[in-house]
Amino acid sequence: MNRLRIAEVEVDANGMPLIVKRESGNGKRVEAVGEMWRIDDEWWRDPIARRCYEVVLDGGGRVVLYEDLISGEWFVQKP
Amino acid sequence: MGTGLAIGAIFGIYSGPIETAMPRNHLASTTAACCWIPLFALRCEEARRPELTSQPSALLASDTARRLWQVSPLARRAGVKPGMTVSQAIGLCHSLRLCEPDPVHYDEQFARLLAALSEVSPVVEPAELGGAYVGTDGLGGLYGEPEGIVEEMQLRIVDCGLRIGNTGVESTIRNPQSAIRVGWGLGKFVAWVAASRAQPGGAVIVRPGDEAQFLSAQPLAVLPLDSDTHRRLRQLGLKTLGQLAALPEEAVVSQFGGAGRRLWRLAAGVAVERVVGRETPEPIVAAITFFSPVAERELLARALDQLLERALKHPRRIGWRVQVVRVRAELEHGASWLVEAILKDPSADRDRIAAPLRTRLEQAPPTGAVERLAVEFTAFAPGAADLQLFARDASAAARADRRRALRTAAREIKLRLKRSLLYHVIEVQPWSRLPERRYALIDYEP
Question: Which of A7, B81, B268, B291 could serve as a FRET partner for B340 with CA atoms 20 to 30 Å apart?
Fold first, then answer.
């Protein structure tokens, strides 16, 4: 459930997401960035470190983007 | 039986009362055979979904869908236990297959088992789902030694079409993979302990006079104890029935009261509680005489429905499901017509009983107009209320109907799309900060 989907994200100079391109489809511009938070967990086995952004995309879609701070990959999830 | 079962659920399934001064009952027996199929419900699921046998699996409880009810041995090896929440279980065993319970199906299967046992003896007492006592007094003349009686029981179960585990019961006898265990002894408690000690597919027979010796080495957990009493007995250093029976009876009574006397007497093998059967009701007949003879099948079918309705409402039918139904018609010019249907799954549902009769009415209708039509229920199986678990109320029946409709829909989807693609959403770690961990999908097979 709420499967992670890999995404390509272009960021600005401050590391904030600008354009989001999912596995299929064209890229969408980020209209607004809402909350930001960081998750660090499970350091005792496979550490998890994520920086998350709740964003509104061009067209009105609300998604959560996160950057996996260990692998450097970006993912998109439902809020 | 409800209270007894609640106690039995803690340690062992035995819950019978001690009835030393019971009034004589011709459907009672002092020698008993206990037929026990552990994890009965889970094994019923394995019969329907053979892939479960090779995977760790568990059944969800029917009241709340987030706790486990029965757990397969493979799952137990991974640390999963009954009563755990789904999230705890998934955390311990990622490959755990979870199944929604289908109580009506389990009751139907159990009814088959009881029907098979009642062919050996008229004295059959259900204990819990998957467990039943059979009174064996007087059966020696038919089957010889207790071994012969036990073998006859196993043979009857083979014939009844019950499917449990990954094989039919065709492989029951002397098959170590079989789930059925049988115990024989004097009184229900000895029979139950013997069954619980039998190998899968095997039997343990405790000859009269050997009860005390047999019971002495058994652990206290076979007694119908609540956890507090069990803890206190262990604190007293008692581990086996023999150690408990070695104490003076009055000392145990002074510590544990009336319940202590019962425990001591069970442990010492001096309590012989009888198996008490139930009388099967007399046939139930409902009939209608037509003002003018009726030849139209539709009218006959409607009359049949009404008669079934009336017969089902008969007070004698309460608590029993219909197994054999007969329809008799008196025709013009003195001829007659008779059909009989034996229901593989006994039922108290009008439509299910009517279905085979309607088919016969279509295929081989009466050869003339009907003057009088009668419906007769001639054989019965214990009703759902007797089977003590779930299918005892209207809401359970409604759930069963919904499940049946879902099953049909799911089958159609599977036919069209080649695979099920139906899933059930369950909460796994709703508190998790990682959204993908909060819920999981399990295969949905209604």
Answer: B291
- What does DSSP say about strands B124-128 and B163-164: parallel, antiparallel, or unpaired? unpaired
Contact B439 A4 (CB under 8 A): no
pLDDT of B9 higher than 50? no
Mean local confidence (pLDDT), B279-289? 83
Task: Decide: pTM greater than 0.90.
Answer: no
For the segment B90-124, what is each residue's pLDDT rounded down to a tens digit?
A: 888 888 888 877 776 777 788 788 888 888 888 88
Residue range(s) in chain B whose domain bears CATH number 3.30.1490.100? 284-389
Q: What class has domain B2-211?
A: alpha beta
> Who's near B307: CB < 8 A, 6+ residues apart?
B286, B287, B288, B373, B374, B375
Radius of gyration of chain B (CA): 25
8 Å CB contact between B172 and B163: no
Among B433, B435, B440, the residue with its CB nearest the CB of A77 is B435
What residues in chain B have their Cβ under 8 A from chain A's Cβ atoms?
425, 433-436, 438-441
Q: Is the Cβ pair A78, B435 closer than 8 Å?
A: yes
Residues in chain A where the model's pLDDT stays below 50: none
Provide, as residue numbers in chain A, all residues whose Cβ is less than 8 Å from the Cβ of B440.
1
- Residue boundaries of the structural domains of chain A: 5-77
| B284-389 maps to CATH 3.30.1490.100 | yes
